[in-house]
Design goal:
The chain crosses the membrane at residues 6-26. By secondary structure, this protein is mainly alpha-helical. It has helices at 6-27, 29-38, 46-57, 64-75, 94-101, 111-114, 117-120, 129-139, 145-148, 152-169, 179-195, 207-225, 232-237, 239-273, 278-283, 288-298, 305-313; strands at residues 78-83, 86-91.
Length: 314
């Protein structure tokens, strides 16, 4: 398979960056002027845009949050910048975010979200238009607070494991980085409540699945901020892209196997459920996947098994 060495990658990156910036400036000069004139902009010139694009591409993932915090501190709560020809506006005020997030008109996600499509396809996060409207209506009840209350026991259980792990790791007033502990606890909670299975990530189990999740997330972050990886071909032949698609195979196979197992269990227990009192059934804990299988049974014309995988992955 074709691989790019450092110098070839550097040359491709420079040519791509300059081409993107110049093309975008010529194609959308009015848009850039309007954005940069209304809010503080850190990339008003072509040179500043190229510098900013390169700097953010070279920033390590762990340093991205401090990078953007410094950007906010220097420029205010609303900041405009361009990355390789793509205009971005960073919002830091909760009131501004509320207006945007509560809008029913502006529901199309930015191009960054499309980089998740090979993984999540067109679940509620990435879909738009009529599909988003119908899917949201179909799934509204699954996020009702009474439904979410069912998961308190699971969340508390995994939280107790987290507390124990943190106490063990910080014995003797030792300073620790809690990021990995929080990540593994979150994964335990998500798999338990969403898929109804216990991966026991905090106990060092399901290693392949945990590694695949972390690897896929790293690759997505790489691709968002390294502009040369926006190109599908370059991404696929890059080390980050190969790792991503290898991890994706593990993740999709895992989800498919769980859905298959849950569907068989759902069919087998259907006759037994009919004999249980309605009040008792309501008290039974159900995973998000269990609820989706119910939705599929009740609305076969509105949801498919593929749709279920999209929502579970999301």
């Amino acid at each position: 398979m074709l691989e790019l060495n450092f110098y070839e990658l550097l040359l491709v990156s420079i040519i791509t960056l300059v081409s993107f910036v110049v093309y975008s400036r010529l194609r959308k000069p009015l848009e850039y002027r309007q954005l940069s004139s209304h809010v503080p902009s850190v990339t008003k010139s072509i040179w500043s845009e190229m510098q900013f694009s390169w700097n953010i591409a070279m920033t390590k993932p762990k340093d991205l949050l401090p990078f953007f915090m410094e950007l906010k501190n220097q420029n205010g709560l609303v900041v405009h910048f361009n990355i390789a020809g793509e205009a971005c506006v960073m919002l830091n005020d909760p009131d501004d975010l509320k207006i945007l997030l509560s809008s029913t008109k502006h529901i199309n996600k930015s191009k960054d979200y499309q980089l998740l499509k090979p993984w999540l396809n067109e679940g509620l996060l990435l879909s738009s238009g009529s599909k988003w409207q119908s899917r949201r209506k179909l799934l509204t009840n699954t996020f009702h607070f009474k439904t979410l209350d069912m998961y308190n026991v699971s969340i508390n259980k995994h939280s107790q494991v987290l507390a124990r792990k943190l106490l063990e790791a910080s014995a003797g007033d030792k300073e620790i980085d809690i990021m990995n502990y929080i990540t593994l606890c979150s994964l335990d909670m998500i798999c338990d409540t969403i898929m109804g299975i216990e991966v026991n990530a905090q106990e060092g189990k399901s290693i392949e699945y945990v590694k695949a999740i972390k690897c896929a997330c790293r690759s997505i972050i790489d691709r968002i901020f390294k502009f040369w990886l926006w190109n599908d071909f370059i991404f696929k032949i890059s080390g980050s892209g190969r790792d991503f698609y290898k991890s994706l195979k593990v993740l999709h196979e895992f989800t498919d196997n769980v859905i298959k197992m849950k569907k068989e269990s759902f069919i087998n227990s259907k006759s037994q459920d009919e004999q249980i009192e309605t009040s008792s059934k309501k008290m039974q804990k159900k995973s998000f996947l269990d609820i989706l299988l119910n939705v599929l049974e009740e609305n076969p014309d509105q949801m498919t098994e593929k749709d279920i995988r999209e929502e579970v992955d999301t």
